[in-house]
Amino acid sequence: QVQLVESGGGLVLAGGSLRLSCATSLNIFSSCTMAWYRQAPGEQRDLVAAITSTSVTNYADSVKGRFTISRDNVKKTVYLQMNSLKPEDTAVYYCKARRLDGYNYWGQGTQVTVSS
Q: What are phi and psi of 31, to 5 degrees?
C-alpha cells in the first residue's frame, strides 16, 4: 500500500540532466497538488517545485529556469525534469501529494548526487 514511489535518481556530472518520476496509486490523484521537495545533509527539507490540480506551477528561486515539474493524470505520475544540474542540487528528493482536505502523502525519497 505504498502510495508514492520515486525513481530516476542517481549520479550525474555538473551540467547534466536527470528526470525524476513519482508514480502513485492514488485514485484522487487528479485533485491533488503535487510537489517535489529536497533535503541535503544537515539542512531542512525545502520545496523545489509544485503543480496544482489545474497545472499551475511554482518553483524555488534556486531551480527556476532549470527544473520543470509536470503531471500525467492518466498515469497518475508527476515528473521533475532537472537540467543544468549543479553540485548544490545534491540532496534526497521527495515526492508529496496533498489532498483537498490537507492530508499529505510522502514518498520514500530518491538520492540525487551531482559531482563536479
A: -95, -5
Kindly write down the DSSP assignment for every residue of 22-87, as one continuous string.
EEE--TTGGGSEEEEEEE-TTS--EEEEEE-TT--EEE-TTTTTTEEEEEETTTTEEEEEE-S--G
Supply φ then ψ for residue 30, to 5 degrees.
-65, -20
Grid coordinates given for 40: 541535503
How long is the chain?
116
pLDDT tens, per residue, the chain with 116 residues: 889 999 999 999 999 999 999 999 999 999 999 999 999 999 999 999 999 999 999 999 999 999 999 999 999 999 999 999 999 999 999 999 999 999 999 999 999 999 99
The β-bridge partners of 34 are: 51, 97
Instruction: Determine contact, residues 79/21, Cβ cutoff 8 Å.
Output: yes
